[in-house]
């Protein structure tokens, strides 16, 4: 009797399917969402709106979406300080430190400060900016007390993956703005090094490296030749995604080695430009999704109304996506905003 029972038990065990075993090194990846926005200015007209309605006002309409992302990032187009003397230039911005609480409210994890305004009030104000960002627990990249600090990416571990964002600028007012070995300033993209070396280093140390770069010409619809070349060099050096700013209007999308290049996200929280016209009010959020299928991206059109980014209706979204398809190179944007490579 016992022998018969043992025999039946062995048969039953053989009939029960064994649990699936992942091959060595294989794993499942939880979906990671990264949200990127364009230029944020908290001075001028927007600064007046903040004084009137509070620090959260610029972000009220978009904060719920930004907060849903595992990481949200933007370009901060202003120093944050109460010190310094305005540079002799057409537009010199400076923001009160308390305004940074609006970034916290919006769920923005980090910003690049590599742009043509970070030194509007000199080196002290630039360094104050980094101190205030730290105080408000907003990560940063793109400027520092020397080139090592300026080219240090912002990093965040998300669901087992290390995400890095490296800020740099090819639009700076003079060489005196470039960070050097013992010179405070912004991370300059005017020369291949130390930029490409910093990207290679980041690619070795992190799972994904995004370069957020200030480049191209204001109010132009298409990137300059140097920008398309530089984008490819950055991807060859290890960048996984490229995000661009400075034109104050939307530019198209290009793929290189199956990796996306967003030449400009346009403004996000910004004063209305009298020079660029209505197209400076058109913006978008880009959401990257990292999962088992790799990296996918999707755009959400945004319109700036009274300095405040707003999500709009179907008609506006349709027009914006149509425009992006006209501006893009080998990318296609579907009606729902999903971006894919034309093969």
Oligomer category? single chain
Anisotropy-based shape? globular
Name the helix and strand elements from N-terminus to C-terminus, one letter apiece.
HEHHEHEHEEHEEEHEHEEEEEEEHEE
User: What percentage of amino acids are in beta strands?
Assistant: 25-35%
Q: What is the total tally of β strands? A: 18
Q: Whole-number average pLDDT?
A: 92
Task: Please give the radius of gyration in angstroms.
Answer: 23 Å
- The low-confidence runs, each spanning 5 or more residues with pLDDT under 50, are 1-26
Major sheet details: 10 strands, mixed
> What structural class should be given to the helix and strand makeup?
alpha/beta
**How helix-rich are the residues, as a percent range?**
25-40%
Number of helices: 9
Distance from N terminus to C terminus (CA atoms, Å) equals 68 Å
């Amino acid at each position: 009797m016992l022998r018969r029972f043992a025999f039946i038990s062995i048969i039953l065990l053989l009939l029960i399917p064994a649990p699936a075993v992942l091959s060595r090194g294989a794993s499942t990846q939880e979906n990671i969402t990264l949200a990127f926005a364009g230029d944020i200015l908290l001075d001028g007209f927007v600064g007046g709106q903040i004084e009137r309605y509070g620090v959260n006002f610029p972000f009220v309409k978009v904060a719920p979406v930004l907060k849903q992302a595992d990481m949200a990032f933007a370009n901060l187009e202003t120093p944050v300080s109460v010190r310094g003397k305005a540079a002799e230039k057409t537009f010199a911005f400076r923001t009160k430190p308390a305004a940074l609480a609006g970034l916290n409210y919006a769920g923005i994890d980090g910003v690049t400060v590599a742009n043509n305004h970070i030194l509007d009030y000199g080196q002290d104000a630039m360094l104050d900016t980094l101190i205030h960002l730290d105080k408000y627990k907003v990560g940063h990249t793109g400027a520092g007390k020397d080139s090592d600090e300026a080219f240090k990416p912002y990093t965040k571990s998300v669901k087992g993956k290390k995400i890095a964002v490296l800020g740099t600028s090819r639009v700076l007012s003079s060489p005196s703005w470039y960070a050097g070995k013992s010179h405070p300033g912004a991370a300059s993209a005017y020369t291949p090094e130390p930029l490409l070396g910093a990207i290679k280093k980041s690619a070795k140390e992190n799972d994904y490296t995004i370069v957020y770069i200030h480049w191209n010409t204001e109010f132009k619809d298409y990137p300059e030749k140097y920008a398309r070349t530089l984008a490819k060099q950055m991807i060859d050096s290890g960048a996984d995604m490229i995000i661009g700013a400075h034109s104050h209007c939307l530019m198209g999308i290009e793929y290189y080695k199956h990796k996306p290049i967003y030449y400009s996200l346009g403004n996000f929280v910004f004063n209305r430009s009298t020079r660029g016209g209505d197209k400076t009010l058109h913006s978008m959020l880009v959401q990257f999704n990292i999962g088992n299928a790799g990296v996918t991206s999707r755009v959400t059109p945004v319109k700036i109304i009274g300095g405040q980014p707003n999500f709009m209706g179907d008609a506006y979204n349709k027009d914006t996506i149509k425009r992006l398809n006209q501006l893009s190179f080998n990318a296609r944007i579907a009606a729902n905003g999903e971006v894919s490579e034309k093969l």
